[in-house]
Amino acid sequence: MDNMAPMLAAYKTVNTYIEEEVERRSKLTAKRPYRSESINELAEALALSQGEFPPIPYNRTNASWNDDYSDLDIVMKYIRPLLSKNKLALNQWTELTDDGGTILHTELLHASGQWKESRTKVVPVRNDIKTFDSAMADAKRQQALSLLGITLQGDPKDDGGELAMEEAYKEVALPLEKRLVRSEESYECITEEQVRELQIELDGHPDLAEQLLDKYSLRSIGDMPKSKYKYALQQVRKFLMYRKGDTDTIR
Questions:
Q1: Is residue 205 part of a domain?
Q2: How many domains does the chain have?
Q3: Residue 151 to residue 56: CA distance in whole angstroms
Q4: Strand partners, 103
Q5: DSSP per residue over 87-99, as a string?
Q6: What values do phi and psi take at 90, rounded to 5?
Q7: In the beta sheet, which residues pair with residue 98?
Q8: Is position 136 within any domain?
């Protein structure tokens, strides 16, 4: 009987953990819609607006890259009258996530009540207000352009993916022994379902995700070899149990 109390306490801890995980995963897997059930009137209004969008001039220069660009203010000055004319409105707002991150929502609304939206996580390179404001302003601009289907002639960022591939070009130039490889044991990567499972487990724990990438020399979770998946998943779950304070159950 003396041993029953610790056992019951352990069972209670495990049960609480399972309930919390079920609730957390239910929230993660529940898909929030990106558009209203019908968008026929919105689509017609947007098509009419796009047919009249004028060329938008560049009005700013990026000090770091010396690139000309059109900021969100000049873009909206040129297109806002056309949106209003066709009963459209653009609305942007932010959402704070459980892990302290920020999601930017950009909604295109029609007078009929129909809508569609775009979302992106704003991740500044430094944790200070000026850097955050800069990242947020650029995200607002990029989402508005994308959602409204606006293109800018001669946009310096439309470089055919050259900047995005810069690191890959550098790696190709390295000696073979210094190049980053997925795994010496297996080049067969985990499935999309396994990627999602790991992402669910790691949600809210960016430090664990970073450790996992470092341990296996991966660029992304999707590059993990199948031979490492089961052990990696077990280790992640152990770390999470420790963080929950349930050290007895996982010994």
A1: yes
A2: 2
A3: 9
A4: 95, 121
A5: TEEEEEEEEE-TT
A6: -110, 130
A7: none
A8: yes
Sign of CA dihedral 181, 182, 185, 187: negative
**Please, which residues have CB within 8 angstroms of residue 25's CB and are 6 or more apart in sequence?**
200
pLDDT at 105: 95
Query: How is the chain classified by DSSP, letter by letter?
Result: -TTHHHHHHHHHHHHHHHHHHHHHHHHHHSPPPSB-S--HHHHHHHHHHHTTPPP----EE-TTT--EE--HHHHHHHHHHHHHHTTEEEEEEEEE-TTS-EEEEEEEEETTS-EEEEEEEE--SSSSHHHHHHHHHHHHHHHHHHHHT---TT-TT-STTTTTTHHHHHHHTS-GGGS--S-SS--PBPPHHHHHHHHHHHTT-HHHHHHHHHHTT-SSGGG-BHHHHHHHHHHHHHHHHHHTT-TTTT-
Residues 114 and 50 in one domain: yes
- Residue 91 is predicted with a pLDDT of 96
Cut 0.70: pTM above it: no
Q: In this structure, is residue 184 part of a structural domain?
A: yes
CB atoms within 10 A of CB 200: 13
- Do 181 and 89 lie in a common domain? no
Q: What is the pLDDT of residues 148-205, one digit of tens each?
A: 999 887 766 665 565 555 555 555 555 544 444 444 444 588 888 888 888 888 887 7
Amino acid identity, residue 95? E
